Amino acid sequence: MWTNVFERGRLQPGQTLLVHGGAGGIGTTAIQLGRAFGATVIATAGAPDRCEACLRLGASHAIDYRTEDFVARVREITAGRGVDLVLDIVGGPYLARNLEVLARDGRLLQIGLMGGARAEISLGPILQRRLWITGSTLRPRSVEEKGLIARALESRVWPLVERGEVRPLVHATFPLARAADAHRLMESGGYVGKIVLTVRAGSEAPSGG
Question: What global pTM score does this model have?
């Protein structure tokens, strides 16, 4: 989230960030950091209680994507201007709609493909409004690249954590033997923040998936 939003996406104080999946582990962190660095944050989530959680974390607006059209709501919230950045974990089904809500020179930051990897769009708006589409994953990066990111987090983000301005949210903790229960909770959508698996020395993963 840090490297996409603040390094690749160049989020600046006073800009507006739209976070999809605002109640998840990435989303809750993006909301808190966006607010801490002076941005206005709009979040989407899949239930009223999850929207309320986004607001408590510092989002200025929360949109229930199950009952509201986030494109229409973002246009209303921004008086038609749109947002400077979109942080998206959905992918294909949201691509064209994400481009619709971007302001001139806006950036789309793709970090997940939960809804699929393929989409068909018109390239016209990208040219007309000078839009950017970028994305990345952390896993294939070199040790040196990961080290640079870690050092940036240490200098820019860790002081916020130490002061309590940003905090990790852990919804539930499961021992590794109950990984299936953790997955069921994750698939239900009934959580806010992270679901953590704990591993003790000498423990083994449960058999049978």
Answer: 0.90
